[in-house]
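assembly run, all chains below
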Amino acid sequence: MTPSGPGLGRVETQRVVLFTQDDPLALESGRTIGPVEVAYETYGELAPDGGNAVFVCHALTGDAHAAGHHGDPEQRGWWDALIGPGRPLDTDELFVICPNLLGGCAGTTGPSSPDPEDPARAYGLRFPQFTIRDLVAVHRALLAHLGIERLRGAIGGSLGGMQVLQWALDAPEQVERAVLVCASARLTAQNIGFTAVARTAIMRDPGFQDGDYVGTGHGPAHGMAIARMMAHLTYVSTESLRLKFDRERRRGHDTHQTFDIDFEVESYLDHQGRTFLGRFDALSYLYLTRPMDYFDPFAEPGVDLARVGAATRFLLVSFDTDWRFGSEHSAYIHERLAAGGVDAVHEVIASPWGHDSFLLDVPEYHAAVAGFLRTRPAP
Amino acid sequence: MTPSGPGLGRVETQRVVLFTQDDPLALESGRTIGPVEVAYETYGELAPDGGNAVFVCHALTGDAHAAGHHGDPEQRGWWDALIGPGRPLDTDELFVICPNLLGGCAGTTGPSSPDPEDPARAYGLRFPQFTIRDLVAVHRALLAHLGIERLRGAIGGSLGGMQVLQWALDAPEQVERAVLVCASARLTAQNIGFTAVARTAIMRDPGFQDGDYVGTGHGPAHGMAIARMMAHLTYVSTESLRLKFDRERRRGHDTHQTFDIDFEVESYLDHQGRTFLGRFDALSYLYLTRPMDYFDPFAEPGVDLARVGAATRFLLVSFDTDWRFGSEHSAYIHERLAAGGVDAVHEVIASPWGHDSFLLDVPEYHAAVAGFLRTRPAP
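ok done. output:
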């Protein structure tokens, strides 16, 4: 299913304070945080019975701006291929909600927000660490604010899928259909290792200043670049890098060896790294990666799969060339759900683009999502 | 084949000046370098007819000390499992030679050696860049110094295998049997990307000081640690990390989330990173990784495989869980050699340990090497 038609037009980001300093969000750790302001966007119209809402949970570096544009029709939201009139999340039929995550840096309260204890400075590392369940608690507060009791669906890729899973396990009555795209319920040692290296690169950069770089005019630019370059290599497949770059050298470069950028893949990674600090915050990178390492919901006591299966059905999508959260991650989730009698389908989609496929227009994937959200009856 | 018996005893590193400032090594780039001193070790006795010599080419962070010990029998050379009496490179029968590479930091002239133009300082980035062929030119000069005309075999893993391949393609009459263990003749964009990130981490570390950190008392410690942590993740398989660490937390650690080291795999990688600067030089890391990116010998004009096939036979070994230079790299070399009528065998060995398998005691691998070097007749 290729995006057709013009897509959504101009959209606006909205903001709402869901928790205050006096009535703060209670985190799973026992700590609290308030105020919590949330930036979010909605697309489409909520049906009078409230039964057409789909909640989008974004991944590590996403934001509330999932679809449409903010004035320049060429600059469209990160999941515009998936969301809009006639698209898999069909806004002619569905009401789509997408907030920026707690701990993020695109409008929702996070570690670079002013610390209410000392509003002249940002929280920095004084911001409390949180869990995937805490991210979902904020989503649920937003849903209550919007007056919606039950979602037609919740969908997310990667870290987004983790939120959907936690939500459906904790409050299945609120999620009729859960779509987890290349998610994981249990990071491997290799997964943990790669983000450990990325965090190390950021935290050991002298520009990090123990987390108090906000407002100083310089931050951990080198560390962020290195983290991003390395992470990006894990988001794309060996095959997609070969297709895009192979061993091509930069045009016009002489044939002498150099430590400077020479191969096209180096130039591409360097660009990814250099632009990252401008569009994402180093503290948010730390705060949003760490909960993934700890996420292991099926290992928790009290998971009630009978209750989950009575209320929620699952679509798990994975991509055959994804080596960050490969199909074995989705297979593990599927196995755990199926063992508990939950209705779950796992579709392994062929795509050369690795983990990044969840952001791209892969027709078989889009068709699977569209079919699951629109045509299958609720249980 | 498990290492049996006590192995080699005490061994000594020798040094020889193979090129002088007046009679320097001419590099493939047209630049020259001299003096070039080489550190090397030998094990076993050279036969009167000189026909039992096997040359060992080390990988990125190896050195001349491949087997035996320097005084502490517990501290043994990096390939001790492969070299010694009764081992695959059987020193009761063979004369084994292993030099430190040009550009290295363990006795052979490299970028941290004194610059003859200004002996009070190290070369730094003024050291000329070189190719795999240049590494082999130094090996061949060492061989001439030792009075050996033809090798029973040349063997190397990873970067070591690249040297063996270049040697056999350029001077097949000098190499009766070539053993390439998890080598590559053509890095992928992903391979190039990972080393690009590692070099970026080193060169952007303020401690790198544009390469002039030698003698200043501090170097690019953070950059080296990050490079090593990331590279190490590519040397080991997903499965080996799972077997060693899975999701284990450090003993006694509380259950709160922390950005500090918490998972065992983080502790392991941190240790790898922290100890690396003490045992390896950042400039050597740059100079020895970059030639791998450019290495593409079958793309060169003038490769004479008929000549190669008349003089040299090949054993290619790869490991099924290696994702740095996986079996497809060896399969490519095999395909190119076989298409030219060269006698080449490719053995894909099952081993859970990924790229690192070439350093480990994997019985099927050791048996293949032993059999190839000892029992098969020369062509």
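Chain A touches chain B through 54 residues (CB under 8 Å).

Chain A has a mean pLDDT of 95.

not gonna interpret more than that til we talk
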